[in-house]
Amino acid sequence: MRKLVSAVFALVAGVACAAEQYPYRWFRLQCDFRKEADVAFAEGIVRRAAATGVYNGVLLDTAPDAAISTCASWDGETVARFGRFRGTCAHEGIEIVPVIWSVGYGAPLSVEPDLAEGLSVKGVAFERRGAKGRFVRDEAAVADFARLKGPYAFDAKDAKDGLNRGFHPFKAAPFKTYRCRYRAKAENLNPEQRFQILFYPGDANDHAEPLRGVYPVRKPTTDWFNAQFDFYSGEREEHRLGIGVWSFTQGRAEVASVTIEEVAPTAFLHREGTPIAIRDAVTGAAYEEGRDVVLSPARNPWTKEGRRPVEVSFPAGSRVPEGGRILIDGYAPAVIGWDQYPACMSAPELVRHFERSADDIARLFGGFPKRVMLSNDETRAGGTCETCRRSGLDLPHIFARMVEAEMKAVRRVSPDTEMLIWTDMMDPLHNANRRGRYFLCTGDYFGTRDLIPRDLVAACWYRRNPEASVKGFADAGFATCAATYYDSGSLDSSRRWLKAGNATKGFKGLIYASWGSGGKQDFRFLEDFAEMLRTESAPRTDASSRDLGEERLRIGLLSDIHVTVEE
Description:
The structure is a single chain. The protein is of the alpha/beta class. 22% of the residues lie in helices and 26% in strands. It contains 9 helices and 24 strands. It has helices at residues 2-20, 36-51, 76-92, 348-365, 386-390, 395-413, 466-475, 492-502, 526-536, and strands at residues 24-30, 57-61, 95-100, 118-129, 132-136, 142-143, 152-155, 164-172, 177-187, 195-201, 212-214, 222-232, 238-245, 252-263, 277-280, 286-287, 294-295, 312-313, 325-333, 371-374, 418-422, 457-460, 480-485, 507-513. Helix 2 packs parallel to helix 3 (76-92). The longest helix is centred in the N-terminal third of the chain and has 19 residues, at 2-20. The radius of gyration is 26 Å and the shape is globular.
């Protein structure tokens, strides 16, 4: 009898909710379907969400090296676990909204590593030793760094406003890959205090975003240990290392033996727009790849093999003499932050990847989903290879052309699927607000929003000014929604987003977004968030709040993409 009463109550609550609430009442969930523990955790969260009678969808994200969009590479057990999860969602009445095609985080690269955005590297030297090539480091590539080797000591008692760190300038030759090695220790230092070693371009200020770096310690107390990270110099010679603690409250940290040296890239890319030139270091004579020199292929960047230096060999009949030295110009895979490997937005191969992937997703789901999220957030490398440069397009148009290709790929298999897109790369308040250079990109994303089709639903997440962000997209003609919470420890920001949505025409709802992975995701407020939606949602009912996503508003700024396959 109790079960019957509960079921009736849930049904009544669900009907009331559907009549009064936003159509999107979702939670974000990250799941690696290769891992049984992840799937069990995810199923538990789905059941908790369904029990509230409020949630009706899960925004499903996956690790970039095992993404839903590359599901054709999954093994049978992984597919079976996904099938089990899909069954759980169907049983609980939770719609799966998959996040697909994360170009910024390189989801396609696990199956097509040559799709990486290419960074120009020049004069990478190898010396022939038998059939193998030995990398030859340019000892003069890093200048004036001996004085920066350390040691460095950081103590909480010396911190000002929680900061105790320094920025150390140095010079390094352009268009090279480098490795920063260091030795560090920590005492009574909380991991969340952000003890870091970071690489910045030389003109960066104290609020700039680092291009690469590491959190050296994850435990409060750690004895001396060795670690490293690689970075790319670009066309610049002036650089800086940021070393220290960014949120100091207690303890002490030390860094010693900091060194920087040139290293070989992990690969030379082989695709349109990433030409390779090989020449004799002494005579300048040109050599042919394949006939004289063989380069190892690009590999999945999330594997150990994919992070090893490129291998060079010399086949029988090579014209490179024993002991001869060669110099290679080419394009290396872009890597930024800690483990972010962006794909090239201009590569014709990427368009074909979208098309194949759309078919694969349809097979995985037993029919293409009703809604999908086009990821495309934090796209921190672009416009750097020759394909991008030859297009004659600036970064906003390159991005918008890629979005059009994604939309065409979806509509080819499912014309009625509703598509959402993260807004940060289009938001003039967010990542589209920077003029000049954005991370490793050539140029910036300013003005991108004007180029994006209005039949995409704008998924806003700019936490510093939610009201202006969601209003800006609504005023520009987009239906909107918002992702909030982000493990903040309270629902204060979520309430602010909900209030902004309540005041905005065409607003579709909120997403409870934890941003961890696996069992580390924070769902402490899952039920409280649902109650907030139940009691505080007030969707606008005026004529202007009709479903803009169904109107197919288009601005027609971009022509169809034509892919040419060369014989």
